[in-house]
Specification:
alpha+beta, 5-stranded antiparallel sheet, 88 residues
Length: 88
């Protein structure tokens, strides 16, 4: 999956965390072998996958859906303030 910005990997107490642009994803492998990914900056945005890549892809898609829903309902999303700029 292509990334918009460079990623930085770092270990956090048995988890792998990735910082992608402004939204951070934490990944952890469960005892049953599945992976869970969570967007730290968007509470409740979590997804499971059979692999690390699958969990990451699912949580990225879910995060985009959550952000789109918030925009459609008129919420201001500070995390997106640098994503769009009106052309002069």
């Amino acid at each position: 999956m292509a990334k918009i910005a460079a990623t930085v990997d770092f270990a956090v107490e048995g988890c792998i965390s990735r910082e992608i642009g402004m939204l951070r994803i934490a990944l952890e492998q469960e005892d049953d072998g599945r992976w869970i990914a969570e967007v730290i900056d968007l509470p409740g945005v979590m997804a499971y996958g059979n692999s690390q890549a699958e969990a990451e892809g699912k949580v990225e898609a879910l995060a985009l859906r959550v952000l789109a829903d918030r925009l459609e309902h008129g919420e201001v999303i500070p995390e997106l303030s640098r994503l769009f700029v009106v052309a002069a």
